[in-house]
Amino acid sequence: MKIILFDIDGTLVKAGGAGARALNHAVQAMTGRKDACSAFQLQGATDKSNFENAFKAGAGRKPTKKEMASLTQKYVDRLPAEVLLSVKAKKYLKVKGVEKFLAKLSARKDVLVGLGTGNLKEGAFIKLEPSGLMKYFAFGGFGCDSHHRCVVLQKAVERAAKLALTSIKSGDVFVIGDTHRDVEAAKEAGYHSGVVLDGFGDPQLLMRSNPELMARDFTGLKPWLIWLGLEKDPKGIKRGTYICPDSPIEHAHYGRTGLDLRDIDRGIKELRKAKKKITG
Ligand SMILES: [Mg+2]
Question: pTM here?
Answer without folding.
Answer: 0.82
